[in-house]
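Example record used in the benchmark description.
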Amino acid sequence: MKTTSPSREHLLAQFSDAIEDLNAYASRNKNSLTEKQSLELIASFEASHEMALRVINSYLATMGKGPFSGSRDATVEAFHAELIDDGKGWLDMVIDRIQYSPVYDLENRQQFISHILDRYVGLLGRFEDRMKKKMEE
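Model output (structure tokens):
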């Protein structure tokens, strides 16, 4: 039996929920995060980024674009379609996710957390605002 994919509106609502959770984690002081809180922040970021990519893929599919071979290709196309405003920042996000592994030392985890808090939360928030406006058009 063929299943239908969630609507763009539903995906955007799920993404908004994920961003809300991420913002709750991001509101903590990054220098005083426990190991558990650090891992929860990273998991929340990864869930938010995955949902953003689902929204991007769904939106671009309605424009007749895709499927894409990976998150980098979808990110580049999203930049060209003006769904995101900082292509380099989004590609950095993709690369950081690829390079991050929980088995790396704590210093690498701290650098990843700094990138999440200092850059990626803002990029995801701007994407949410932009997509809400596009959905209203």
